[in-house]
Each structure stands twice: as C-alpha cells, then as structure tokens.
Amino acid sequence: QVQLLESGGGSVQAGGSLRLSCRASANARRPYYMAWFRQAPGKEREGIQAINTPGGRVYCSDSVKGRFIISRNNAENTLDLQIDRLKPEDTAMYYCASVRDGQGVDPCLPSNVETWGQGTQVTVST
Known about the structure:
Elements: E1 4-7, E2 10-13, E3 18-24, E4 33-39, E5 46-52, E6 57-59, E7 68-73, E8 78-83, E9 92-99, E10 113-116, E11 120-125
Parallel strand pairs: 2-11
Antiparallel strand pairs: 1-3, 3-8, 4-5, 4-9, 5-6, 7-8, 9-10, 9-11
C-alpha cells in the first residue's frame, strides 16, 4: 500500500503563499488520480483539486480557484499544491491523497480516497 508524506505547511499572514508537497513511498502504485483535501476545525473534509496521470486537473472547490494550483511529477511520484493569496479561512489541515482507480470515480470525494497522508497544518493569520 502506498504511503504518502506531506510537507510544507506552516503559519503565514494573509496574502502570503505556501507550497505543499507530498511524496509517495518508493515503488508505490501510481494511481490515476491524486488529490489534495483539507479539513478545517469543526468542518467536514473537502476536496480542493485533483490531477490525473496525464496532468488533467479537476477543480473541486470554487473558493480556491485561481489561488491554488495542483501539480504532479509522475517520475518522482510527488504531488504539489501551490497556494497563493492565502486567506484566514484557508486555515485547515491539508491532506494529500491517492484516489482509487475506476471508471467514473469522482476524485473530489473523500469516500473515494484509497490512501491518506498524515496531513500538514496551514494557519493563516490576519
């Protein structure tokens, strides 16, 4: 089973940027879709963006569109999330995920995630 390890979280002021990274374990199966999710305190986990092996993106959340961009390096088995113009409401635990393969699987749904990373905290202050 693939293991995912996130890094890059931290505390920043509103308007700042962060780049989150996720590395899959060596020789891990490369799922067709990988995705980033986040969970704020007291809220449900939500999909942010997903990306497939050829690089096609799925935008799960309108609230981050234009500020967040997902990217993937298949050769290195890594997944990144560039976050710009951060807002206090972006404060959450951010999770990297591998999505189970299958025709018609929605990569934005937590229920379709096969493996979760341990999460990395992003805190945005005013």
